[in-house]
Amino acid sequence: MNIHEYQAKELLKSYGVPVPVGGVAYSDQQAAQVAEEIGGNKWVVKAQIHAGGRGKAGGVKVVGSIEEVQKTADAMIGTHLVTHQTGPEGSIVQRVWIEQASEIKKEFYLGFVIDRGSQRITIIASGEGGMDIEEVAKQAPEKIVKEVIDPAIGLLDFQCRKVATAIGLKGNLMPQAVKLMKAVYRCMRDKDALQAEINPLAIVGNGADKLMVLDAKFSFDDNALYRQKAITEMRDLAEEDPKEVEASGHGLNYIALDGNIGCIVNGAGLAMASLDAITLHGGRPANFLDVGGGASPEKVTNACRIVLEDPNVKCILVNIFAGINRCDWIAKGLIQACNSLQIKVPLIVRLAGTNVEEGRKILAESGLSFITAENLDDAAAKAVATVRG
Questions:
Q1: Which CATH number fits domain 21-101: 1.20.1440.230, 3.30.1490.20, 3.40.1010.10, 1.20.950.20?
Q2: Which tens digits make up the pLDDT trace of 12-52?
Q3: Is 226 marked active-site?
Q4: Catalytic residue among 109, 128, 147, 244
């Protein structure tokens, strides 16, 4: 789960991390009011969507009057902002964040991610902030600093100083950097975050230099949200695919893709293998849908309905290797779906595992025209052949 920039900043602020004074606005009038309340003579108006690259797309503007704040907010709210992360359809801007503009002297990148190799939280930092870290890694990998954190003892001061020195922070900024890094680490650990990204972390101020988080991004572990009520309340369903939201409500894992072969599979690994098999045969999967364990007929029916909400779907590939699941449950669910949803597209079904013979018998005696397959390769080949006509 992702949250908006302003929510990330409020979360960091609760841990003592320095962030600019600001407020969220849902209209141009409210934006002007927020700017008046926070004061100053220069403000930043930021579109709030779950995507990076907003600055290059025109979603971040620095303005010098209340009138310009209102005008800029009015131009942003309600429009579709297209960035390199949204795709060509863009994301609709429903709110903006207004904050005091800072006098920036130097920008840095600071990120905390879970390294799957070491199974530990790892700091990734660079003296090149305000730009995509992927570009820095590609063009100047020597400017990327990494530090692995031992979960048994946590982030130590010397590690923070090591990272700060490597990216060019020194003097009175060193203790600030140590305090900031440890606070971000605590926040990430406490809130079950998968990623905490600060880009840019900046040196600001007209007098004594100080560190300030000018932009922040968090993503959280969906499997841990049951114990993170405050984080769950930050979820913005409008920023997510409606089909994915509906699927999660039925205990299904759904991710929309851009192909025309719908996929209903049990288990994330088998789902990925199914997508690969379809691609290998020259097809394009329309989605990733994992029904998980214990799929009841009702759950299978809901899975079919959600897949068919995508108008691009020309056929559905059902690939089940039953363990906790039972093939007879899946078969009954498919028949129920065909009868209740009046499914018109072909269904290619591959069943294996628990109660497989019973499941195949139920399909064969249903009177419905399922296309059966013996294995994954056979199923993928038949699905691709079906959409090609």
A1: 3.30.1490.20
A2: 999 999 999 999 999 999 999 999 999 888 999 999 988 88
A3: no
A4: 109
